[in-house]
């Protein structure tokens, strides 16, 4: 079966799901924006500068903080000053070649118009995140959790735990949904006690399924806000049928 045939089969097998949550948490790269080309160029540059094969770096990099990736190969080079300078240049350099994930802007605009509690929890630095949002014209949330805010990056749950707390939803009985595109991010969201939607962009549905998200969607155009009631947002989304973890 070709990739095109498999995609069509998955779409035909998809089914609708309705679920409600007190708040929403979004990863950035690969979930809201398709920064694949920029990330590849980013790690090519890092590989050249720290004398490591970029292909080796890219095998483990996605979903992880740049500083953690560098620590794996050249701990002595892993400084925030170095990382911030590298990442701050990415949006301006690659913004024209970095599209939003389909449906991202529309979903975020719905969230903003209905005053749904939300935050971005990302492995990127402050300059990288704010730069992407500005270049792509995406709404900026009131709350951002970035690489510098936590001691350990994804798959550690610290970022998503901080995201829950920023929304005042740290209590276990509060239902929080995470949108993620990487196995490391999915595991972080689950470990933080959240439900997780895996977004097929940087990884296949089969790869995401191994991290055991609650649902998997093709992209964010498959997610809509049905209504907001009783302090919860009701979402409707088309789930890839064979991606459920239970």
UniProtKB/TrEMBL annotation:
* Organism in which the protein naturally occurs: Helicocarpus griseus UAMH5409
Please report the name of this protein according to its UniProt entry: Glycerol-3-phosphate phosphatase
One GO MF annotation is: sugar-phosphatase activity
| One of the Pfam families matching this protein, by short name | HAD_2
Q: Which Gene3D superfamilies match?
A: HAD superfamily/HAD-like, Putative phosphatase, domain 2
Q: Which domain of life is it from?
A: Eukaryota
